[in-house]
Specification:
Distance between the termini: 27 Å
Order of helices and strands: HHEEHEEH
Structural class: alpha+beta
Low-confidence stretches: none
Strand order of the largest sheet: 1-2-4-3
Radius of gyration: 14 Å
Helix content: 40-55%
Number of domains: 1
CATH architecture: 2-Layer Sandwich
């Protein structure tokens, strides 16, 4: 995958609406730099915004530095952190809970 294709794929992450799509796309982008050794994605709401908090580790420090430069991301507590702003959804607390359980069940499968 070329650099401009990876940047475009990274920018499209914000149009994803579920954990599986985000994790898959981010894994695909990062694997261009080396082996992804860990990738955890959590959904969060902050200030009315929906976000995916992605915690990433690569197989080597050099690969992590390459990803940090390419995606312009930072390290927090030893993890590379990618924050993806997600589309807003009309929701209720009950609907959010059901959606979260479904996403977690799918992600764990």
């Amino acid at each position: 995958m070329k650099a401009n294709q990876m940047k475009a794929a990274y920018e499209r992450l914000g149009t994803s609406d579920d954990l599986v799509s985000i994790k898959s796309a981010l894994h695909m982008i990062c694997s261009e730099f080396g082996a992804v050794s860990r990738l955890d994605v959590l959904l969060a709401r902050q200030g009315g915004k929906r976000q995916a908090l992605c915690f990433l580790r690569m197989d080597s420090t050099e690969h992590e530095h390459q990803i940090m430069r390419f995606l312009e991301i930072a390290r927090f507590a030893g993890e590379l952190v990618v924050v993806v702003d997600l589309p807003q959804q009309a929701s209720t607390p009950a609907a959010d809970t059901v959606r979260l359980y479904r996403e977690l069940a799918t992600a764990g499968a």
